[in-house]
Amino acid sequence: MTEAQHATPAAPAITDTTQVPDAARTSQRWRVADVIALYELPFNDLLYRAQQVHREHFDGNTVQLSTLLSIKTGGCEEDCKYCSQSSHYDTGLKAEKLMDVEAVLDAARLAKENGATRFCMGAAWRSPKDRHLEPIKEMIRGVKAMGMETCMTLGMLESHQAHALREAGLDYYNHNLDTSPEFYGQIISTRSYQERLDTLDHVRDAGINVCCGGIVGMGESRRERAGLIAQLANMDPYPESVPINNLVAIEGTPLGHVDPIDPFEFVRTIAVARITMPRAVVRLSAGRQQMDDALQALCFLAGANSMFYGDQLLTTGNPQADADRKLLERLGIRAQSAQAAAAG
C-alpha cells in the first residue's frame, strides 16, 4: 500500500492548522497530510485540542490499569527488528513452552488484587496452532470468571481461530500494525502488512474488539509516524483500543542502539492518536520504565487513558505497581473500576 492509497483527493487542503478537521464530526478520512498538520501544531495547542476531545468521551481523571503476561515466551519465527523474542537474534532470552492454565489464572488473580481490571495474555508465535486453542480458551474463560476484561495477542489468526476465541468470550484481540506501510519493510520481512490487516479483518468479523497500535522511536520519520496514525484512524471502524509503544532498545536486536525519540514527539503521538480516534482507549504501553513522572503526566494530559501496570511487560521491565499508584495519587487520577471496565 502507498500513502496515496489512503488519501481522499476531494478533501479540502488545510491552510489553518488550528482548524484541523475532526473525523468524529465529519465523514472525511484522515489524509497523512492532515495528521502531519496535527503534529505540527504548537505543543500547547495540540494538548489543549486533545484534552477537549478526550473529555467529550471520557472522564479526564480516570485510567484503566492493565496487566500483560507472557504466556509463551521466546522462539518466535518472525524477524521483527525490535523484539527480544525473535529466534533470529541472540538476546539471551530462553524459549519457553505455553504456560499451564492454572499458572496463568494465578497471575490474573494477583493482577486483580493489585487493582488491574484488564488482563492481557501474549504468546510469541507467528500464529497459533489449532491444538493451542483449547488451553487458551480455558485461560480466557477463567480470567473472565474473575470479572476482568480479557485480551490476547497470539500472532496471525485464521478466521475459524478468531471465532473460537470469540466463543470463549474474548473481549479484545491485539495485533499491532507496528508502523506505517512505507516504513514497515525496514522493520519486518517475515510477515507482510496485508497479512496483519487480514488478521484484523478476521478479528472484526468474529465480533471481537480490535486492539491495534504501533511502536514509535524505531528510526522512523514524523511523516511515517503520521502514516501509522492515518492507517489506524481510517480503519472502519477504527480500533477500540490503541496501544502506543515507545521503543525499548534491546541489546542483540538490530534496533538495540537506536537513539531514543524526543519525549515531546512521543507525547504528540499520544495526542494525535486521541484526536483522530476520539472514542478509542489510548494505551500508554511499552517504554514507560524509561519515562520520568513528568513525561507520563503529559501523556495522560494528551489523552492516554490506560496504562500497563505491574513489574514486567512481556519480557521488558515496567514501573513497579507501588510507584504507579503513588504517581496516580499525586496526579489525582483514579483507577477505573471493574464495573466501568465491563460497561465500557
Offer a concise description of the structure.
With 344 residues, the protein is α/β, with parallel strands linked by helices. It is built from twelve helices and twelve strands.
DSSP strand (E) fraction?
A: 5-15%
- Largest sheet: number of strands, sense, barrel closure: 10 strands, parallel
Structural class label: alpha/beta
Helix content: 25-40%
H/E element order: HHEHEHEHEHHEEHEHEHEEEHEH
> Which geometry do the CA atoms define?
globular
Radius of gyration: 19 Å
Determine the number of helices (DSSP H or I, runs of at least 4 residues). 12
Structure explained in plain terms:
By secondary structure, the protein is of the alpha/beta class. Helix content is 37%, strand content 15%. It contains twelve helices and twelve strands. The chain has helices at residues 32-39, 43-57, 101-113, 133-145, 159-167, 181-184, 193-205, 222-233, 263-276, 293-301, 321-331, 338-343; strands at residues 62-72, 118-123, 149-153, 172-174, 209-211, 214-216, 241-246, 281-284, 306-308, 312-313, 316-317, 334-335. Strands 1, 2, 3, 4, 5, 6, 7, 8, 9 and 12 form a ten-stranded parallel β-sheet that branches. Strands 10-11 form a two-stranded antiparallel ribbon. Strand 10 (312-313) and strand 11 (316-317) form a beta hairpin. Helix 2 packs parallel to helix 9 and helix 5 (159-167) crosses helix 7 (193-205). The radius of gyration is 19 Å and the shape is globular. Residues 1-27 and 312-318 have low confidence and may be disordered.
